[in-house]
Amino acid sequence: xxxxxxxxxxxxxxxxxxxxxxxxxxxxxxxxxxxxxxxxxxxxxxxxxxxxxxxxxxxxxxxxxxxxxxxxxxxxxxxxxxxxxxxxxxxxxxxxxxxxxxxxxxxxxxxxxxxxxxxxxxxxxxxxxxxxxxxxxxxxxxxxxxxxxxxxxxxxxxxxxxxxxxxxxxxxxxxxxxxxxxxxxxxxxxxxxxxxxxxxxxxxxxxxxxxxxxxxxxxxxxxxxxx
Amino acid sequence: xxxxxxxxxxxxxxxxxxxxxxxxxxxxxxxxxxxxxxxxxxxxxxxxxxxxxxxxxxxxxxxxxxxxxxxxxxxxxxxxxxxxxxxxxxxxxxxxxxxxxxxxxxxxxxxxxxxxxxxxxxxxxxxxxxxxxxxxxxxxxxxxxxxxxxxxxxxxxxxxxxxxxxxxxxxxxxxxxxxxxxxxxxxxxxxxxxxxxxxxxxxxxxxxxxxxxxxxxxxxxxxxxxxxxxxxxxxxxxxxxxxxxxxxxxxxxxxxxxxxxxxxxxxxxxxxxxxxxxxxxxxxxxxxxxxxxxxxxxxxxxxxxxxxxxxxxxxxxxxxxxxxxxxxxxxxxxxxxxxxxxxxxxxxxxxxxxxxxxxxxxxxxxxxxxxxxxxxxxxxxxxxxx
Lengths: 227, 386
Ligand SMILES: Nc1ncnc2c1ncn2[C@@H]1O[C@H](COP(=O)(O)OP(=O)(O)O)[C@@H](O)[C@H]1O
Ligand SMILES: [Mg+2]
Description:
The structure holds two protein chains of two kinds.
Chain A: H1 2-51, H2 56-71, H3 74-85, H4 89-114, H5 117-126, H6 130-160, H7 172-181, H8 185-222
Helix pairs in contact in A: 1-4, 1-6, 1-7, 1-8, 2-4, 3-4, 4-6, 5-6, 6-8, 7-8
Chain B: E1 2-10, E2 16-25, E3 30-34, H1 41-48, E4 56-61, E5 64-65, H2 71-76, E6 78-81, H3 93-97, H4 99-103, H5 108-121, H6 126-129, H7 139-151, E7 157-161, H8 169-186, E8 189-194, H9 197-203, E9 206-211, E10 214-219, H10 221-226, H11 231-237, H12 245-248, H13 254-257, E11 264-265, H14 271-281, E12 285-289, E13 295-300, H15 301-306, H16 315-318, E14 325-327, H17 332-341, E15 346-350, E16 356-361, H18 362-369
Parallel strand pairs in B: 3-8, 3-9, 6-7, 7-8, 11-12, 14-15
Antiparallel strand pairs in B: 1-2, 1-4, 4-5, 9-10, 12-13, 15-16
The complex binds adenosine-5'-diphosphate (ADP) and magnesium ion.
């Protein structure tokens, strides 16, 4: 009895509010996707740059800065950004973008470093220019690493985006915050569930994308001996 | 021709790994760089395609100082094969082979045609292998791809750094034979690094022996085997190739060991005549020699009897071509190696002008080794089918 009541409540709630839930989910997705796209745009070239030279102090500097951003508590970071960027979507995206940089940077760097130096030298010896080598040889071989960095980042950025509503950016966090305000359990649970579903779906999609591009190369990396 | 003039290389850590290298690498030849690990073979080779630049000295290709050339353009004109093959695992076989043509912006059709032609050249069916990935090929097949990739844009010079050393002995042998076959046709300038003396003797037109960043001896394999410059070279050549040294300081040549009048027949002889001759000489095969004393082929008793019913046939109709011969003056060790490699029971010796002069058989070798070959050379009675 109790159980079917509970289910019926949710069913009613979702029927009444599906438009709002949809809008919130879309906002949520937009914020997360923008932050990740910007993060990749900065972190991937930076990772390539770091991996293709051996300037020690530059490595240390970049990784230290990226680490610092990573360790600032997200709530604090959002709060700090208010006087600088005001409230709303922009500071939220900016904060999440800062969080996205480090893991993507790390994986890009690891991916490029994992490429067999003999292959790189072989490419060089055959007459690839530096840029051609980066794009045609090193990038495709590092791609699985980069993609796994992006996937991992996507999952937690989607979860952290719920906090963005605290500075008025909207998203699924808005449902949770409102639910807390009016003590309405359905709102809170729906917001949380939707964020989880969103993260899982995004993860799966990116996984499928990665497979599509690296199916063959993977069979190779498993048997890396090339002998 | 590639010329090294007083080339030195000191790495950043201050170690002088090449000390004053002077070397001429002849065009159209296989020059083998050989020496113990760490002696500077790879460094010497990488100087040629400017993967490494010399600390001092000059390297010229066909008279032009390569230091003045654009390294990327230079490398596209020089084929490069490395030890662990260096095929790009994310590219298909066709893409791998087409790397340099694509860098040189060949048109698509010409590139595709070239890829198929090269695959066929090493016995890999293009229809099957074009779209495979390197990991789907055996080690030997992958290294064949490594070799044809270096040939793709038809460079005059090819650098090969221990290309076959990671292969099993059978594949290695096959690849070596294929390289010899390709080279007979292509006549490239090949610089081949190895640490395996057998490989060097087999492939090298010229062998450059290195030690501790310096060249110890340069010469034809025969010359190095016969006149090792010092104890280091001797020890590098190894005991088994120095057989006979105790008795005669020099290795015996095939001339000393061969049978000078083996059983021969002219191509126009009938089959019945051939059988008679074999009976008389008590041998089971005949060498077919034309009136100018040039070797045409060989017939065994089995082949003759097989076709004996055909009265109009002559030995020329049933003979098999002779695939391996050695020239007079070749050392016995080279001849023996050839015989054991190709499972030959005998080996014809020809003069430089192609005239047939004699035959090495297992029997003659045994007699020679027993030290009783001087007066009664009866080895020919041991001919067996080729
Ligand atoms: N990049 C480098 N920096 C410092 N030393 C090097 C470098 N590359 C090679 N060497 C050293 O130079 C010597 C010759 O190396 P190499 O030419 O690779 O020898 P080989 O190919 O004959 O085995 C070795 O002692 C090696 O340790
Ligand atoms: Mg080496």
